[in-house]
Amino acid sequence: MEIIWIIYICVMAAAVIAVLYLYAFRYEPFNFKLSDVDIFVKDKLTDKTGVNRPAKPILTILHLSDFHLRENSKGKRLFKFVRSLSRLNVDFILITGDLLESDKNIGYLVEMLSPLRAQYGKYAVFGVHDHYYKTVAEFLKNMFKKKRRYKKENDVSYIIKKLSDIGIEVLVNQGRKINIKGSDVSNVEIIGLDDPIIKKTDIAKAFSYIGPIKKSKPLKRSDYLKKYRDTFKLRKSKIHKLNNDGLLRIIMLHTPDSASIIDLAAKGSDIILSGHTHGGQVRLPLIGAIISGCNIKTKFASGLFYFKKFVLYVSRGLGEGRYSQFRFYCQPEASLIRIYNIR
């Protein structure tokens, strides 16, 4: 009888492992979703309480992130899903980095993105994988200590040119101001930052089109903690008051790095869009993400957050790195963001 029980337990354990493997490696990474995200803003203080949702948004954004595009089975299904989004009628398409892992796949990326259309513009920023092609050894070392550089660099100038050919402008610490005719918020600023993990972020340069901005001095630990607590203070109200009336300032930042976000909040940023975390990639019911993969708390690894001075949206992204091709309870997503002006 004991042998029968041992065999039974082994069979059951093997079955559970097989189910978990199939779910994490063969189902969830392919389970693409278009998430609906509503962001409520107002450009003046009013006496209204609660959220009265207007019938029509003032702005629509297709937010894409973390393709890690490769010409494998995952890449082919991702290719088909992203191209299906060409049916959407949006004002902007904003792509927050890690588009690919090797510049050899740029042709495939361009073919995937070329059908997408937006009324006012398509913009992208880079993540670390757009800059570098990591080896297995570098990936493993990076798990214990974050690296600033890797041996094999991608040809980012070539990637920028090929994306420009299909109307996608890569913002490398740059900003653009767009006039939205007939909108409650007449001006939109799109500011794109390079990746902070590899120390390529230059906030002063990105904001330079507005006017001269001094680079922030490194903060003492005590000052940093105070600023952190003040910056990441959640609002009870799910309505963000614009920092400048008639102007919506949107930031694109691949990695939601706390230090960079503190600096951006101080510069009047309204909405910060990020990726990188893959939502934690492994999430547990009632607990959420186990890790964030960067300098931000795991509770902010994915989703929409209204803080005191700004709104943060962190996408779970659509792909995974080639050395970690799994997800658990963390559905890959593109996001259709609708911004409403509350009066």
How would you explain this protein's 3D organization?
- By secondary structure, this protein is of the alpha/beta class.
- It has one domain: Purple Acid Phosphatase, chain A, domain 2 (4-Layer Sandwich), CATH 3.60.21.
- 26% of the residues lie in helices and 25% in strands.
- It has helices at residues 2-27, 73-84, 106-113, 128-131, 136-142, 156-164, 203-206, 221-231, 258-266, and strands at residues 33-42, 59-64, 90-96, 118-125, 132-133, 152-153, 168-170, 174-179, 187-193, 240-241, 247-253, 271-274, 283-284, 288-289, 303-306, 311-314, 333-341.
- It has a 7-stranded mixed β-sheet. A 6-stranded mixed β-sheet has the order 8-9-11-12-16-15. The protein has a two-stranded antiparallel ribbon with strand order 5-6.
- Helix 2 (73-84) packs parallel to helix 3 (106-113) and helix 8 (221-231) packs across helix 9 (258-266).
Number of domains: 1
Share in helix: 25-40%
Low-confidence stretches: 45-49
Which CATH architecture? 4-Layer Sandwich
Distance between the first and last residues' Cα: 73 Å
Shape: globular
Helix tally? 9
User: Strand fraction band?
Assistant: 15-25%
Per CATH, what is the topology? Purple Acid Phosphatase, chain A, domain 2
Largest sheet: 7 strands, mixed
In the sheet with the most strands, the strands line up as 7-4-3-2-17-1-10
> Which CATH class applies here?
Alpha Beta
Rg from Cα = 21 Å
Averaged pLDDT, please? 91
Order of helices and strands: HEEHEHEHEHEHEEEHHEEHEEEEEE
Helix/strand-derived category reads alpha/beta
Number of strands: 17
